[in-house]
Amino acid sequence: MKFASILAFAALVEAAPTDPNFNAMEGYTCAPGPKSGWAERGDESCKFVAPVIPPPETVGGLEIGKCYQFSSKNFGGKALRHRNGEVWVDKKNNQNALYKADATWQVIKGLKGDPDTISLQASNFPELHVRHAHGLAFAQPGGGPLYAADGTFKVDKKGQFVQFESVNFPGNKLRHSGFRLMLGNDDGSDLFDKDSSFAPREMPC
Questions:
Q1: pLDDT tens string 118-136
Q2: What is the pTM of this model?
Q3: How far apart are CA 8 and CA 164, in angstroms?
Q4: Helix, strand or coil for residue 168?
Q5: Rg (the chain; Cα; Å)
Q6: pLDDT tens-digit profile of 137-191?
Q7: What is each CA distance from 67 to 18, 35, 124, 181, 191, in whole angstroms?
Q8: What is the C-alpha separation between 197 and 179, in angstroms, rounded?
């Protein structure tokens, strides 16, 4: 068995030593050497090339493509959840499959296309995105420039919490009031900071 393996390797060396792009082993690249024959090139002309894995793209600490549950800063037992096309801060109940799905959001690149922005897409209804309209937050399907702008946000990271600032109404952020998610002007108050801050927890998509 060992002798057969040696013969197989010898045949491989004999077959393709002159090809500068010959990969005798996956992950290796060989350049032409001073002598013919792949086996004679040595480490200087046949090197292992590690695959290039790009770093994950993040905005405000949120990784594009990953899913999260966002818990309220001042009501830690409640999280952002869509129901009936609206977005609420509802009591957590991850043992309930419907609640868990409704409260899981996939972070995607901003629909408007601005750099360093995100949109929130419902994990169980990918056609739904969080967007503001008439001062309130909805999880709606749609398209066009207005929909994209209303559904695109900058992420302001504050410690373990994140805030979502509207791109088409700068200075206005998503915040809850009466447990309904809406768009409000950041007045710098402690209450607004708490109402607009959410702790992300990674979830399976």
A1: 999 999 999 999 999 999 9
A2: 0.76
A3: 61
A4: coil
A5: 26
A6: 999 999 999 999 999 999 999 999 999 999 999 999 999 999 999 999 999 999 9
A7: 49, 54, 11, 19, 27
A8: 13
